[in-house]
Amino acid sequence: MTGGDGTVLSLTDIFKHFPVRRSFFSRETLRVHAIDGVSLAVPAGKTVGLVGESGCGKTTLGRVALRLVEPDSGKILFLGQDITALAGEEMRRTRKMMQIIFQDPYSSLNPRMRVGDIVGEGWLVHGIAGSREIRELAERLLLRVGLSADAADKYPHEFSGGQRQRIGIARAISLSPKLVVADEPVSSLDVSVQAQILNLLKDIQEEYGMAYLFVSHDLRVIRHMSETVAVMYLGKLMEVSPAEEFFGNPLHPYTRSLLAAVPMLGGAPREKIVLRGEIPSPVSPPPGCRFHTRCFMARKLCEEVCPPLREAAPGRMAACHFV
Ligand code: SF4
Description:
Structural class: alpha/beta
Bound molecules: iron/sulfur cluster
CATH topology of the domain at 7-97 and 175-253: Rossmann fold
Shape: globular
């Protein structure tokens, strides 16, 4: 089941700003521009890697996609249905088909629940199975993610970080979702465990056929996982390209700067580009092109006019006046 165009998720012109106080004693409210007009589609059974520096809005976008965070405006289509304003029982039924794997396997599992209950909670909540069947189903899923069946009787604190992330994955796939948002799922794990978890996620995707919106700051991880890569910077998308072309021939100056900093990624020899300075505050993003304060190609126009995300090459989108 997909939208008519083969997408599971389609985000259109999403905005999300968060109000913050200037200081503890101040009454003045500022606005963090977490997402500013983002449109993005995730095809059925595929992985879209969403990459960017810390604070660029990628985690917020993942949560908006599942409506764990409500957008200020914009439209969310899931399996062709507009779920932006869906409520009550209809939203509950939809939620079954969209799940999340959190970054921190320590805080995302209830420490007072046994692992079997954590994994089987979805079946109970949605009335899909009784407690005896749940036990059986949970054991089967735990085995599938590489744990032993008796893990069902234990508590999360009895497991390592990698094992806890396996529990999180078992919980996420328990209801056979169509879309999983994986929010930096390996960034808190040891490097030696990361590859095992990534491979597990790939195997499970093949088996269950779900789509991933895979959020990560790590280009190596994004390369391993994604068919399409979307790059975010200060609340806006800078480039959306098929992964092979993205890594072989990046279009956007920001993408080129990011890839130049990771020469181990292979592909074409990297340019020598140094990404200048720090990412500006999302409370007062620069006018014009968001990236102009750090861009090695910036010109006068870039300070004044924000470039739209447009087709810059067949099947590739970039937001730059000069690409
Ligand atoms: Fe750089 Fe200008 Fe392109 Fe923005 S629009 S990425 S500042 S060249």
